[in-house]
Specification:
Distance between the termini: 52 Å
Number of strands: 0
Order of helices and strands: HHH
Radius of gyration: 23 Å
Helix content: 40-55%
Number of helices: 3
Largest sheet: none
Structural class: mainly alpha
Amino acid sequence: MKLTIEIPNEQLFNKIVWLLNAFKSEGLKIISHNKVSNINKEKSKNQFSEFSGIWKDRDITQESIREQAWK
């Protein structure tokens, strides 16, 4: 059986990981655990949006990109 959970803050995350580690002797395996903050997710989205309109007013088509790629 597998379980995936999302935890709202780092303090609670650390407590739950500590608690789960106590059950390792009974055969519990922690396959992976990652600390991903919402701040990092938002920052990634903002960085991507900075590139919107980068090709505006440029005469670029899929065909022209393919032609240059094969040179």
